[in-house]
Amino acid sequence: PLIGEELGVGTGPLGLLVSVYSWVLAFAALVMGPISDRIGRRRVLLLGSAALAVALALHGWADTFGALLGMRVLAGAGGGVLSGAAVSYCGDYFPYERRGWATGWVMSGVPFGLVIGIPLGRALAVAHGFRMPFVAFSVVMALAFVLLLTVVPQPDVRLSEERPTVAGSLRQYGELLRQGSTAAAAATYFLMYSGLGLLIVYLPQWLTTQFPLEVTVFGRPLTVFGLPLDFIATLFLTGGLVSVLVGPRAGTLSDTVGRKPLILASCLGLAAVTAALPFVVTERWVAYPVYIAIMGLFAMRMAPLQALLTALVPSRQRGAFLSLTIAVGQIGTGIGATVGGALYAEMGYASNAMASATLILAMAALVRWWLPEPTGQAVDPE
Questions:
Q1: DSSP states of 175-239 as a string?
Q2: 209-227 burial string, b = 16+ CB within 10 Å, else e?
Q3: Nearest CA to 80 among 335, 324, 336, 334?
Q4: What angle do CA 330, 306, 252 make, to 5 degrees?
Q5: If DSSP states are collapsed to H, E and C, what string results for 157-191?
Q6: What CA–CA distance (Å, rounded) separates 2 from 128?
Q7: What pLDDT score was predicted for residue 382?
Q8: pLDDT tens-digit map of 62-119
Q9: Which is more confident, 378 or 328?
């Protein structure tokens, strides 16, 4: 909403900022997947973090909607370079029986980012304009580059000996999509992120129209580091805190009980809460437990699913495969955001929530009947 107000852009077009980023990220991930199999994840992570730091810094000069859209294209490219390699690194470095624990901690970086990034970004945007959160994020990515350079080693795994080419990459992706388990994994990611795009992208917009945003404590506005902290910021903060707590524990539990039981339980619970959201959030305080449930259930399925996917192919194909699933997922986010904008404008937020719940149930069916529960030994003996 703050971007729309500052640049004079309507509700519908704002969804393009998410869609374009997602589509470019998907393309970049597809390009870099086979390359990471050839040169190793560490180099790709260094390249992606540096590119994203520069792209985010350039957001400081975005003075029109078109310019901001262009900056999101650049950021999507940097994010795409990072995304597949980050997940693949867990598969390379940790044995399968510990990957639930490892991916749980690594993926907790996402909700931890929500805990810090969304509230602080919102506060920075309210105080200094929408460009400031992007510039601050560029500093964080520069720090990530330094940590990768000085701390993170290259895993000792077998790399691909095939030189990446356009024809070779297309052939490899085609082979992956023709296999039942890997095709099901790609479809799972599409449904998961389509549902997320439908639900989350326009949630702040809906809440902004439903409730006053100011949060007060003892009659005074709530602030953090001297910056105003409003309802949207505190909502994402509480939901993110729960995700940080749930993600690592769900990943560790999946090492013992299996990945699929947790994924299925999460999907069923998430579908129910998502469908109920627009009907039960009639007062502002109700949004907190509902959003906490949504974020906790999402974290409950994310780490087990990531751990499961790392074992579906050998290490020399892992970068391409996980980049494929992430690309398909980002395409789903873009489609979800685009369709969500049309649904929100024409029929209201309840239609977004119901459509999202339907896709979550479809994902549960796909996981139940088509996605295998690997042991990690037969596929990747090294």
A1: HHHHSHHHHHHHHHHHHHHHHHHHHHTTHHHHHHHHS----EETTEE-EETTEE--HHHHHHHHH
A2: eebebebeeeeeebeeeeb
A3: 324
A4: 145
A5: CCCCCCCCCHHHHHHHHHHHHHCHHHHHHHHHHHH
A6: 11
A7: 42
A8: 989 999 999 999 999 998 888 778 778 888 888 888 888 888 888 777 777 767 777 7
A9: 328
Say if residue 381's pLDDT is above 50: no
Which one has a higher pLDDT value, 272 or 79? 272
Whole-angstrom Cα Rg for the chain: 20
**What share of the chain in percent tops pLDDT 90?**
32
Contacts of 315 (CB under 8 A, 6+ apart): 91, 92, 157, 158, 159, 380, 382
From the DSSP assignment, how many helices (H) and strands (E) are in the chain?
A: 15, 4
Tokens 């909607």 identify what position?
A: 65
Reported as a single tens digit per residue, the pLDDT across 133-144 is 999 999 999 999
CA atoms 63, 65, 66, 67: torsion sign: positive
Q: What is the Cα–Cα distance from 50 to 70, expressed in whole angstroms?
A: 18
Dihedral sign of CA atoms 175, 180, 185, 187 in order: positive
How many whole angstroms separate alpha carbon 96 and alpha carbon 310? 8
List, for residues 212-231, the tens digit of each pLDDT value: 766 655 556 655 555 556 77
- Residue 311 is classified by DSSP as T
**CB neighbour burial string for 307-337, b if at least 16 within 10 angstroms, e if fewer:** bbbbbbbbbbbbbbbbbbbbbbbbbbbbbbb
Residue 184 corresponds to which tokens in the numbers above? 């099901």
Residue type, 366: L
